Amino acid sequence: GRRFVPAPDTSFAALREEQLDRLGDLIEHHADTDALWRLIESGAPQGLPFIPPGAPA
After folding, report:
1. How confident is the model at residue 4 (pLDDT cuts 50, 70, 90)?
2. Cβ atoms within 10 Å, residue 17
3. Helix 12-30 and helix 33-42, axial crossing angle in degrees, nearest 10
4. Is 53 a domain residue?
5. Count of domains forming the chain
6. Is residue 35 included in any domain, yes or no?
7. Is the pLDDT at 56 greater than 80, yes or no?
8. Band of pLDDT at residue 51, cut at 50, 70 and 90
9. Residue 28 placed within a domain
10. How far does CA 51 lie from the centroid of its chain?
11. Over the range 32-54, which residues count as b (16 or more CB within 10 Å of their CB) and which as e?
């Protein structure tokens, strides 16, 4: 097969950082971040349906 050899000035860390920044911007502008924080801090509300082997613990 063929070998992949990136350009010497390629920074994969910088490229990854750019992708994470874009993802963060998308979440900030298009998701209900207040609801996400409530889920993170308090968990899912009681009584939601689930698909086994999920939920009851």
Report:
1. very high
2. 11
3. 100
4. no
5. 1
6. yes
7. no
8. confident
9. yes
10. 22
11. eeeeeeeeeeeeeeeeeeeeeee
Are 54 and 48 in contact by the 8 Å Cβ rule? The answer is no
Residue 20 inside a domain? The answer is: yes
* Three-class secondary structure assignment of 1-57: CCCCCCCCCCCHHHHHHHHHHHHHHHHHHHCCHHHHHHHHHHCCCCCCCCCCCCCCC
Phi/psi of residue 17, nearest 5 degrees: -60, -40
Query: Taking the complete model, does pTM exceed 0.85, yes or no?
Result: no
- Give how far the C-alpha of residue 44 lies from the chain's centroid of Cα atoms, to the nearest Å: 18
Q: Select the more confidently predicted residue: 50 or 26.
A: 26
**What is the extent of the structural domain holding 20?**
12-42
pLDDT digits (tens, 9 = 90+) for 14-32: 999 999 999 999 999 999 9
